[in-house]
Every structure is written in C-alpha cells, then in structure tokens.
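hey so i finally got around to running the thing on that chain from the lab meeting. sorry it took forever, my laptop kept dying and i had to restart like 3 times. anyway pasting the input first so we r on the same page abt which one it is
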Amino acid sequence: MRFRPLTRACLVIAALSVLVTACSSEKTTSNSANGLEKTDITIGMLPLPEVAPVQIAISRGFFKAEGLNVNYKLIEGGAAALPTLLSGGFDVLHSNYVSAFTAASQNLADLKVIAEATVATPGSFVLLTAPNSHVTKVEDLKGKKIGVNTKKNVATLSTSVTLKVHGLDVTRDKIDFIEVPFPNMWQALKSGQVDAAFLPEPFVSAAAADGGVKLADTMAGPTDSFPIAGYFVTSEFASKSPKTLAAFQRALLKAQTIAANDRKAVAEAIPQYTKINAQTAQIMQLPGFPITTNAVRLQRVSDLMLEYGYLTKPFDVNSLLLGGQK
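ok and heres what got predicted. didnt touch it at all, straight out
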C-alpha cells in the first residue's frame, strides 16, 4: 500500500502526539500514584529554631520533590492550636509533647507522632529575670509570678522540675504561672508583670543582650536532653493519607538530618520564618534535632508528667506512634 506524502506526514504527527501524550500521562499518573492522597499540606508551627527543618525542606525543594505543596501558619502554642488540627485547619501540628500527651491521655484528641522535632540542649530553655530584680536565685521565686507562653505545657513542667530541685513547690509556695506570648515576655519582665520568665531561644539571647539575668537552665538534671516537641497528625489523617504522610516524613527526615549536622543551614533557615536576624541565628544556642522517633525517649515526658500531676494515670506513648516507629 502506498501513502501520499501528506497522509504519511499526518500519521507521523499523530504517532508523535500519542507518544507525547502517553509520556505526559505516565508522569502525571506516577506523581499521584506515588502517594498523594492529598498534595496541599498546612503545618501549624511556632516561630522557633526547632522547626528550621521545615523551612529547609521547603527552601531546598524536598517537599516538592515528593509532590507536596507545603505551607505553614505560625502559632503561639501547641495546646491553643490543637483544635485547629482536629477541625482540619492544619494537617500537621508542631506541638510540645506535654500539651499533646495531655490531650491524648484524656481522649480529647486521637493523635499520632509522625516525627520528633527537638530535644533540649544546655542553655536553650532558661529562667530569666530582669536587671536589678529582687529575684537573684531560684529560691527567691517563692510567692512570685513566672511567665510562660501557655500553661500545662513543657514550659510549666520543666520549670516545676527546676523549682523542685531548688526546694520549691508550685502549690505549696504559691508560685503563679502567668501566660504571656514569647515575643512579649521580655517586656512583661521589665514592666514587673512577671518576676521571672521561661524563655527558649532566640528570646534568651535577645533578653541577655538587653541585660536579662539567667536564674537557671530548666533543661538540666532530671530534664537533661529532654524531648521538647514533635510533629503530630490526627489518626484519621494518618489512616486516610498514608502515602502523603510517608512522603512528608521522607522530606522532613532529609531536612532534619541536615539540621542535625549543619549549623549554618539552620542559621540560614531561621530568619526566613521568624523575626530573628541572621547575626542572632548564627550565635544562639540551638536545640538538638533527632532523626529518629524513639519511644523510650518520649516516655520520659509521660513519666515526668505523671510524677508532677499532669496525668492522673500512666500513659504509654506507644499508642501515639505509627507502626514503623515502635
């Protein structure tokens, strides 16, 4: 059979079109099949150094490489933001463990820990006072007010432990915890609204530069290398979007590994999502960035919560871990 030139050309063009369409279709199918029950992910997180890996993963395209479009919204505390996670406003929540474990133990939230965010390092979470304060040592806090970002969280728990080490008891010695957002804490100290304050970095460095006086490192002794915060999802999200969750974890792990080994990468990331300037980011004390989720490590938090009355009965953190983490 002979083809006229025009007919043969048309067939070639048609064949090429089919080939291109097939390749394009194959790529699209591959992207969705690789795991994306959901592609747009919103994280609720505090503007603290501990979430630098999220920014690293965004900036270096780790999430995009997994087919995810990840955005974040800044929050003031994990406890206050938990209802937003439960209502679907956040897909992932960065929260301190104390708030999350409290909610889970009371059956207020069905949560899963998908990754650890940080563990404490010396000097990263401290009690401070203002210059010329009458409070010059921890023992002077009897009957005083201590500023924390939210109550019943890692700030109040670790501070309570520190007070006990120095012979004080929050209830017996009538010590009050006053809620003040971290960005406003230093002003609250200077104005006398609170007598001392629990502060993480970068607020520690900023206050110290303005004359703030360190009373105690709250992450020492019983709380040395204490797990601080992690990334949480609802159990419903974990069960309905397992491929999306796995993709998120892979991207975050790459960034977490970089953060654990490259201070410069963390320092470069921090100013992108906080008001911390580059100079402060380079010199401030950074937390530790775990690259595994460890049940034994996290159980320390639960056990200390039980000891200090944050829990009414023992709570096994294994109930919050995904199958592959246990």
